[in-house]
Design goal:
Keywords: Glycosyltransferase, Lipid A biosynthesis, Lipid biosynthesis, Lipid metabolism, Transferase. The protein has about 400 residues and is an alpha/beta fold. It is built from 17 helices and 13 strands.
């Protein structure tokens, strides 16, 4: 560990755009408490804005399921070894892995064996599938920061310290989003029907879902001729793939909004999105949504056999019921997606009921995550930073 005369060092690895966002919010809480500490590793724009030294991009880690991970396996193994060597010599005072468990848990296990404290921010979805992973987590993680209140009890028998810190987005996003303000900023008429399309941030997601979402939007235009389409992108890869897809469908006149997902969802009446963090963001923004996902067929069958819950979308999982539709695999087709989206546009009472449920969810997750995460980290590892 670094001596008191040296600058302390914390390494972080975020695996994709959503992890970069979580990392930025985590650093917002940590940096004021550790002003002389160097924060560095793998991250993106959100983490850089908090003074993070992003020596590596997270793009190589943004894989889409088993098939993509297998294809990139040699590259990922080399990258993990490169990071381990960089973090071990000289040893960092603390390592924080942000999501990306298939990559970060292996890295954390090696660093923990080297005597480096390890924190994992965002519990792997052991409550949904692969509960046998608990033993792997126990070998790799000293402190687990959990976003959801039902997660810490799952670690009670493992020896892993687990703390519910809430979800940072619940702190950041308003309880009552201002749709009128968002539309004014985007130059959209207040009475116009607006649909936001979020087909994911990873290459596999975009290739599977973007064409289907655009085809569904074309169908919706037949029922809603004045429909405004908003298509936020999360990264440079998304910019490229979306531009290519829209060049093939100029009649859609979709508005591309780079790095403006929250603004797009706030302005929208309904959101059509890929299963993942975006679904929780849409719920916190009180937006009706349709969740879709498509992947390799054999991978999908494997995941369904391993699943413990009947849902894949976080709003449904957290509220323990199907409050928004989930259309997966063959059901994620243009006709069925368009039909499910149109029902939200046509059913105002259902939209009002959903707002009430999503407000309940928001209050459950609003825990001042940056503060709680900082307190948990310093309570466990404060001696490494001069006893703070």
């Amino acid at each position: 560990m670094a001596s008191s005369a040296e600058r302390t060092s914390v390494a972080l690895v975020a695996g994709e755009a959503s992890g970069d966002l979580l990392g930025g919010l985590l650093l917002e809480g940590l940096r004021p408490a550790l002003p002389e500490t160097r924060f560095w590793g793998v991250g993106g724009e959100a983490m850089r804005t908090q003074g993070f030294e992003a020596r590596w991009s997270y793009e190589p880690l943004a894989v889409h399921g088993f098939v993509d991970a297998l294809r990139r396996y040699p590259q990922l193994v080399r990258f993990r070894r490169e990071l381990a060597r960089a973090f071990e010599s000289p040893p960092v005072d603390l390592f924080i892995g942000i999501d990306a468990p298939d990559f970060n848990l292996g890295l954390e296990a090696r660093l923990k064996r080297a005597g480096i404290g390890t924190v994992h921010f965002v519990s792997p979805s052991i409550w949904a599938w692969r509960r046998g992973r608990l033993k792997t987590i126990a070998r790799a993680v000293d402190l687990m920061l959990c976003l959801f209140p039902f997660e810490p009890p799952l670690y009670a028998e493992t020896g892993v310290e687990a703390c519910f810190v809430g979800h940072p987005l619940a702190d950041r996003l308003p309880l009552v989003p201002d749709q009128a303000e968002a539309r004014t900023a985007l130059g959209i008429a207040l009475q116009a029907p607006v649909l936001a399309l979020l087909p994911g941030s990873r290459e596999g997601e975009l290739r599977h879902l973007l064409p289907v979402f655009l085809a569904a939007a074309a169908r919706l235009r037949q029922a809603l001729p004045e429909l405004v389409l908003l298509l936020p992108t999360a990264n440079a890869l998304g910019d490229t793939l979306v531009a290519a897809a829209l060049a093939e469908a100029p009649e859609l006149e979709a508005r591309v909004l780079p790095r403006r997902a929250h603004e797009a969802m706030t302005a929208a009446d309904v959101v059509l999105l890929a299963s993942g963090t975006a679904a929780l963001e849409a719920a916190l923004l009180k937006r009706p949504m349709v969740i879709a996902y498509r992947m390799n067929p054999w991978q999908y069958r494997l995941l369904r056999r391993m699943a413990y819950l009947p849902w894949v979308g976080l709003p449904n999982i957290l509220l323990r019921e199907t409050v928004v539709p989930e259309l997966l695999q063959d059901k994620a087709n243009p006709a069925d997606l368009a039909s499910a989206v149109l029902r939200w546009f046509e059913d105002a009472p259902a939209r009002e009921r959903l707002t009430e449920r999503f407000t309940e969810l928001h209050l459950m997750l609003r825990q001042d995550t940056a503060r709680r995460a900082r307190e948990a980290i310093l309570a466990r590892f404060g001696q490494r930073f001069g006893g703070r």
